[in-house]
Amino acid sequence: MANSKKLTLFGLIGITMAFFGTVRSVPTLSITGWTQIFYMLVAAVLFALPIALMSAELSTGFPEEGGPAVWVKKALGEKWSFVTSWLLWAQMFFGMVMVASTVGVLFGYVIDVPSLSSNNLFIFAVILISYWGVTLLNLKFDMVKIAGGWGSIIGVYIPFFFLVGLGVAYMIKNGINPEGYLADFQASNLLPDFSDLGSLAYLSGIIFIFAGVEISSVHANNIENPKRNYPIAVIASVILLVIFNLIAGLTVANGVPMGKMELSNITQPYMIFCQDLGIPPIFVNIISAMILIGVLVQLSAWVLGPSKSMIKVAEDGNLPPFFQKRNSKGIPITFVMIQAIVISLVSVMYIVVPDVNSAFLVITITTTILYCIVYALIAISAIRLRYKLPEINRPFRLGKGNGLMWFVSILALLSVLITIIVSLIPPSILPESFSTGYVIYQVVATVVMVGIALVIYKFKKPSWKRK
Q1: What are the extents of the domains in the chain?
Q2: Could you please report the per-residue DSSP string of 206-238?
Q3: Which residue ranges run through the membrane (predicted)?
Q4: C-alpha distance from residue 14 to each of 4, 7, 160, 245, 428 (Å)
Q5: Cα–Cα distance between 465 and 467 in angstroms, integer?
Q6: Model confidence over 391-403: pLDDT tens digits?
Q7: CATH class of segment(s) 2-464
Q8: Whole-angstrom distance, CA of residue 129 vs CA of residue 384
Q9: What pLDDT is attached to residue 95?
Q10: Per-residue pLDDT for 218 more than 70?
Q11: Cα separation of 348 and 432, whole Å?
Q12: Of 165, 218, 328, 375, which is least packed with CB atoms within 10 Å of its CB?
């Protein structure tokens, strides 16, 4: 009976793919042209695979609810566990601004006024309206339960299927577009242009495609024969994600004219493909509306998810009683309201930064840096727990001895370090005048987010613990 509840190998591959199914990241991939092949392979092999495999061992050995915060607590103590929980909550401030910004872009196409997609003030206003809207709805209704399943199908899978299909049809009809990002192919185009360090910042945006790769590890205990099937599922999922993203990324890079890619505007390639293939423009309006539904459902899922984790951290005595308040439905009202206010403040970036494209990339990179700090803590914890708690049964284990775990952990730490360094290089699409401000912003945002957690922990009181 217990066995019938076990996930099959293909079931886990499907779940893992579902976590990362999105069309939003395709323009960030496409703008790098042929180099996206190199970037995707680097992101998959050096970033996604090591972190997913380490997380699998940790989640099977320490299956308690809480994931990364539990692993770090057992390895490095409560302080760094709190920092981990805090950063997984804080990254959402930037990540949700990025996600909500696409609502404004899509809405412009739904109502057939595309010019709104590049209007900073309009994007800023829509971020505020959409995020506060889904926040207030979630206080009254379980929006993920109401719209989660069909929202993903309508807003993610169908648009992704059409994007790939239209892109392939466009390429079959036209070949390589001489005005696109794939024109004038040379073997050197497959590698980054190291003379233009600003272009390396796109690697950070591409790595963000795999951010959250540790989430699927929660199912590692629930799969048939985890020792054999989990690594197969992870490797197969990463390979499939690389293939699907590259097909979408290369076809979009082929269709959009060089220098015209709009990073936050996934509707742009649909419009180009439909126009070329003679598909009525109303199709673009319909697809935009479908993706818009998917984005709003995703926003809804994030409104409550991280805040529910954080209130457990608060009730353990890491935050004052003010943070431990719930409404009549048990929703952590303080966290939900704080995140809405902070997200509103972060969205001011869309007024400060010169154009929508730049703001979108800058905020994507901030989110990636915060994730990288969490992944560094996970990598250190994975190796530390091998020596601190060697007797724990690990249904999925990296190697018989400790050698393979050392190799995978060091690989993960190196990839995280490289990602953070690359993230601090001002992207080439930013105006020269904003370059210094960019570096200051990224350093300050990171230091402040980590610093707040350390300060709160230093001054925490025993009376904060919920009785």
Answers
A1: 2-464
A2: HHGGGTTGGGGGGGGGGBSSHHHHHHHHHHHHH
A3: 35-53, 86-109, 121-139, 151-172, 200-220, 232-253, 282-304, 333-353, 359-383, 404-426, 438-457
A4: 18, 10, 15, 16, 36
A5: 6
A6: 998 888 998 899 9
A7: mainly alpha
A8: 45
A9: 83
A10: no
A11: 21
A12: 328
